Amino acid sequence: MNRETKIPIAVEGWKLIIPLAVLTTLLFVFRWEVSGFILLVITLFIVFFFRDPRREVPSGNGLVVSPADGKVVVIKQVLENDYLHQSVMQISIFLSVFNVHVNRVPVSGKIECVKYNPGKFHIAAVEKASLENEQTAIVIADMNRKILVKQIAGMIARRIACYVQPGDTVQQGERYGLIFFGSRVDIFVPAGSEIKVKLGDRVKGAKDIIAILK
Fold first, then answer.
1. What fold does the segment set 63-212 form as a domain?
2. In whole angstroms, what is the distance from residue 46 CA to residue 79 CA?
3. Alpha carbons 189 and 194: distance in angstroms, whole number
4. Average pLDDT over every residue of 74-82
5. Could you state, in order of their start, the residue ranges of all structural domains in the chain?
6. Which is it for strands 175-179 and 109-117: parallel, antiparallel or unpaired?
7. Which residues are catalytic?
8. CA 115, CA 137: separation in Å to the nearest integer?
9. Which residues are CB-contacts of 39 (< 8 A; sequence separation ≥ 6)?
10. Is the pLDDT reported for residue 158 higher than 80?
C-alpha cells in the first residue's frame, strides 16, 4: 500500500484543489478580483490542510510511533472491552485544522480488524468524543501483541478515510488514512508499555515515538 505522491498533497485533496484552482483562475480572467481573492485564500487553505509531508521513521525494537500530528490530550489506563478485552494504556491526540491530517501506522503487523461506527460529532478534544463520535477502528496484530487505533471525527469533520482492510500487512509509518477538518486519534497499547509522551506534548505522525512495547 503506497499512497505517496511526487507532490506532498494527500490524494483526497486534489478532488477539491483542482476545481477550486480552475474556478479561481476564471474569476480573475473575468476580472472579478474580490471573489477571486476570496476563493484564492480558500484554495490555499485547502492545499495547506491536505499537505502530506514525507517523514523519516525511527528504527528499533518495540517502538510505537505516533499515528497522527497533534497535541496529546489523554494518557490513562483503561479497560478496553470492545476490541482488545484487556487493560491497556490509552493515548489520545487532538488534531486542529492546522495539523497534518494524514494518519500513519504506529507499528508493523497485520490488520486484524477494521470497523466503522457512526456516531455523534462532539468537539474532538473532549473525553466523550472517544466513545460517542463517529469513528473507524483498526486492530494491528504484532506477534502476540495487539494495538488498537481509532480515527475519530470531530465537530467539523464529517468524513473519515481508511485505506486498509482486514488481512493487509502494514509497515510502521506508512499512510493508512485521513480525517477531514479537525479530529482526534486514540491509540491503545498494552498496559506494560513504556509511555514516552506526556500531556500537552505535540507529536508528529510516523516520526515521534510515543511508547515502547515490553
1. Glucose Permease (Domain IIA) (2.70.70)
2. 38
3. 10
4. 95
5. 11-49, 63-212
6. unpaired
7. 183
8. 5
9. 20, 23, 24, 27
10. no
